Amino acid sequence: MASEEEEMRYLFAGMLQERAKLKSWSCAIAGQDPENGSFEMNLLSNGESVRFTRTQHLPAFNGKASRGVDEKGKLNEVGDVLHLPPRDDVSHVCDNRQTTAAWYESNDKCTISKSTPSKREIMHLWDPRTAGLRLDPHEPDYREAINNRLKFWQAMAKVERKGELWTVTATKSFEFQDGRLSLTIDTEHGFTPTDYRAEMFWKSNSKFPGKTDVQYVVTTEWKQLDGVWVPIRHREARADGTVVREYNVSWDWINKEIDDKEFT
Q: Which of 168, 198, 220, 247 is deepest in the core (most CB within 10 A)?
């Protein structure tokens, strides 16, 4: 066990070290997720401050403008009926960790506010340094995301090697099922996480002995750019193949100096 803990610390230190090599970037991201729907965006970042334009492709909408709760606590739709065709919603946002400014083309409205963790969370940004991981809602920082998994895994996981691919697997036993969470890391190509999945295995005393239920699978493709491994595709899918989250990244450049005025 001591040896496996050392191997896990080695793996996660490698991931942290390699992801830290990406210090600034300009890229375009096309994809979909539950927060933004289908979208394209252009993103500039120095690793902390960000500036982006995001175009969200909104589907047609027919229904009430809002919802309310009546005196019996029942949720009802209220307000005028809206009939909206498919449309694009374009937003321009800049955050320099002191001020957040946002301009929304759909209503020609601009807001300026103090930058806070909650404000940055509302921006629904995806940090490419977290590629290959399935994030919790409050894990915007790649260091936090990686270290949280090390804390979880090092006390209970096993490490399996197949050449350059090392897989960390944690198993938790229940009465009728074994839950398994695994992460595969390519140690020869930038300690890149390539496969992250959750599965449930039904035991012999269950109704479905031997059956495996896949909860989700996250796969990521990487390439080396100027000596740094960067993601070019990150996808999360359900067992039936339904895509929950997908980001396709086109890189303009990485690790150039950016004038602070870009984020003013």
A: 168
Q: What Cα–Cα distance (Å) separates residue 83 from each residue in 55, 63, 79, 105?
A: 21, 7, 13, 19
- Please name the residue that has the structure tokens 């099922």: 177
Contacts of 155 (CB under 8 A, 6+ apart): none
Do residues 209 and 203 lie in contact, with contact meaning Cβ atoms separated by under 8 Å?
yes
Q: How far apart are CA 135 and CA 126, in angstroms?
A: 10
What are 163-219's pLDDT values in tens digits? Answer: 999 999 988 887 887 888 999 999 999 999 999 999 988 888 878 787 788 899 999
> Which tokens hold the place of 231?
């993601």
Beta bridge partners of 104: 91, 109
- Evaluate whether 57 touches 37 at the Cβ level (below 8 Å): yes
Which residues, 6+ apart, have CB-to-CB distance to 133 below 8 Å?
145, 146, 149, 183, 193, 196, 218
Return d(Cα 83, Cα 60) in angstroms, integer: 8
- Provide the whole-model pTM: 0.86
